[in-house]
Design brief:
heterodimer; A: mainly alpha; 11 helices; 74% helix; globular; B: mainly alpha; MetI-like fold; two-stranded antiparallel sheet; 2 strands; 77% helix
């Protein structure tokens, strides 16, 4: 290493400070979930787990949770199928416009979320689809495709297409090759992609506000209750829950595949 | 049947390709590009002043309004300046940790740090913004931290919002920068040291120019995400930004809101073109 010891020490301290900056607010909101008081003062002088019970028994929170789970599962399923199909085409074929496909896949997440949201809202209104779970899923699936696509395409690039040709030479038909050769190679990439897509969909709010109508998801419920001081203790619990539910799948996904650490682009 | 279809697909690779692409392309073109088209087209329609209904007659009035009314220009300028300041702050903050990850940390620590930076990137955006709203409150965590130094937190101000944006998009800057720094060959550092350059000189003459494409790649995210945001500004300040204006006028004046989306889109197109010139796309 060319860096002097002093420089390395300073860099280490800088890295630590940045980590503290990144995790500090997440830890603070985690602590607030255990705040016994309704007022959000600091430091917290009385701890309690009672708000977890309150949150669990809240009908609106339960409905929102169930809607979030359904939306995330639906969006993940659609995104996984579409993303995998697109990645197979891009990684295994040469064709005109191949580069454009990567671009179009990334676009929904690269453009500011307000544009995606407003565009979908205007279109659903024009076409006459009523807002609800279905429109939430359509919106989420659109920007989750890139996550599945990126994971699978990276895996396909690292595995040789010649194995699939060998399989065909040995007499396997298209389905058999997919079932016995392609799919087993993709399995962990598919799992990592679905975990990330789930995490992305589960806490999405910027596009969801435009596509949800009266249907509340958990983030929408938080957004709607931020202005109500009496609800803030419950909001804190739901916020902690959202952090955990989005971080755990991402942690698992990074363990599953190296590709999963890729920057997802602006999801907002 | 399955067998015959399989054989047919095997003999016709173009059909196979078409079958693979039909669904994903169909979805993205119809649902996404179609929606974008509907939105951009709406920018050329009119809103009836009495009924608030959209009148489908072509007009450039929306763009004229945006150009002529000072408030829209001020808001656009405020948003773009904020995006620039946030990008600058993120670039400065990201450098030490990215450099540490790329060149100082052991492989084990490095992979731990990558995960540590990636995880919060996926954590709920809304929760992070809300956490800052709580922390910036009078008598909140920030006042408590700065109190012993005789200072108080920035509160719900533009400075507070700047801090929040910087926080929200920091991981988007760290990751490309880390990748970019890791790619610089060790020998370049040694050569610089052999030629007598000290740390600072090596940094300004060697590291910074070589890391520029990665910095620009990260700045695409920090810039674009700030440009379109409408939730954090509403939670932290009462100032208007492009996003908050689009959000609040979309109900009564969708065409005007649609026209206003041209501003962030145009800014990002120019930004992306510049970024490509600087070689940022190879660093993504």
């Amino acid at each position: 290493m060319a860096e002097s010891r002093a420089a390395r020490l300073l860099l280490g301290l800088g890295a630590l400070a940045t980590l503290a900056f990144i995790y500090g607010p997440l830890i603070v909101i985690g602590l607030y979930a255990f705040n016994a008081n309704v007022t959000q003062g600091w430091p917290i002088d009385d701890f309690s787990t009672k708000w977890f019970r309150v949150a669990w028994e809240d009908e609106a929170v339960r409905h929102a949770l169930w809607a979030s789970v359904q939306a995330a599962l639906g969006a993940t399923a659609v995104a996984l199928v579409l993303g995998t199909l697109a990645s197979l085409a891009v990684a295994r074929y040469q064709f005109f416009g191949r580069e454009t496909i990567s671009f179009v896949v990334i676009l929904p997440i690269a453009l500011p979320g307000i544009i995606t949201g407003l565009a979908l809202q205007a279109t659903f209104q024009d076409v006459g689809i009523s807002f609800g779970l279905l429109t939430i899923i359509i919106g989420h699936a659109t920007f989750c495709i890139v996550v599945a696509y990126n994971n699978v395409v990276a895996r396909l690039r690292r595995t040789a297409g010649s194995i699939e040709e060998a399989s065909a030479d040995l007499g396997a038909d298209t389905w058999q090759t997919f079932r016995y050769i392609t799919f087993p190679q993709l399995r962990s990439a598919l799992l990592a992609g679905s975990l990330l897509a789930f995490a992305l969909s589960f806490d999405e709010v910027i596009v969801t506000i435009f596509t949800s109508g009266a249907q509340q998801t958990l983030p929408i419920w938080i957004f709607a209750n931020l202005a109500r001081p009496a609800e803030l203790p419950t909001v804190n619990v739901v916020a902690l829950f959202l952090i955990v539910v989005s971080i755990v799948p991402v942690y698992l996904a990074t363990r599953l595949s190296r590709e999963a650490t890729g920057v997802p682009g602006g999801r907002r | 049947m399955g067998r015959r279809l399989s054989g047919f697909l095997f003999r016709h690779p173009r059909v196979r390709l078409g079958a693979l692409l039909a669904a994903p392309l169909g979805w993205l073109v119809v649902v996404y590009l179609g929606s974008l088209f509907v939105l951009l087209l709406a920018a050329f329609w009119q809103t009836d002043e009495f009924t608030s209904e959209i009148v489908h007659t072509f007009t450039l009035d929306n763009f004229r309004t945006l150009f002529e009314r000072d408030v829209y220009r001020e808001v656009a300028w405020r948003t773009i300046s904020m995006a620039a300041l946030v990008t600058l702050a993120d670039a400065v903050l990201a450098f030490p940790i990215a450099f540490y990850m790329a060149r100082v940390a052991s492989p084990r620590v490095r992979s731990l740090l990558v995960v540590a930076v990636v995880m919060p990137l996926w954590a709920s955006y809304l929760v992070k913004a809300y956490a800052w709203r709580t922390m910036l409150a009078t008598g909140g965590v920030l006042d408590w931290l700065l109190g012993p130094l005789g200072l108080s937190g920035p509160g719900y101000s533009m400075v507070g919002l700047w801090l929040v944006f910087t926080y929200l998009w920091l991981p988007f800057m760290i990751l490309p920068l880390y990748v970019g720094l890791e790619r610089i060959p060790e020998s370049v550092f040694e050569a610089s040291a052999d030629l007598g350059a000290r740390s600072f000189r090596t940094f300004s003459r060697i590291v910074l120019p070589l890391a520029l494409p990665a910095l620009v790649a990260g700045s695409i995210f920090t810039f674009s995400l700030t440009l379109g945001d409408y939730i954090a500004p509403g939670l932290i300040t009462s100032e208007q930004f492009i996003g908050t204006v689009i959000y609040s006028i979309r109900g009564q004046a969708l065409p005007l809101a649609a026209a206003y989306t041209f501003v962030p889109i145009a800014v990002m197109v120019v930004y992306l073109l510049l970024a490509r010139r600087l070689g940022a796309f190879e660093s993504l």
